[in-house]
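Subject: sequence -> structure tokens, single chain

Hey, anyone have a minute? Need the predicted structure for the following. Not urgent.
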Amino acid sequence: GILDGSSRPPQTILNPSTDVGAPATIVNPEFLAWNQRDQMIFNILISTLTEPNVVHAVGSVSSAALWSTLLSMFASQARARVMQIYFQLATVKKGSNSITEYFQTIKTLSDTLAAAGQPLNDFDSVSFLLKVLAPNMTHL
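Reply:
Had a minute. Here:
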């Protein structure tokens, strides 16, 4: 709940005091405890970032803000990686490799896509595997 912001209590609450002149609202003690946990998690997240990634954390003041920034940053990198793998699949050539080595290359790239949450469907898998045979195939 801290990383997605869903557990954040209100910063202030109505003052239960009925004293004349007492402020209408006071700082919520639950918010103070939550904020302390949030800042501990924020510091843990910051401490795990490599130096080039710390610059992306500038301006984030809460764990949820930092987490959102990191998700966006790494998601765009993951999309770029998926596109790169698709390009590799489309352009891989058998060359002097054995058919086993060629199939292993296709399988490794396919497994990498699956690990990135973008598994190939059966048709695409077969298409990439068989494209090496296309020059030798005749039309019916």
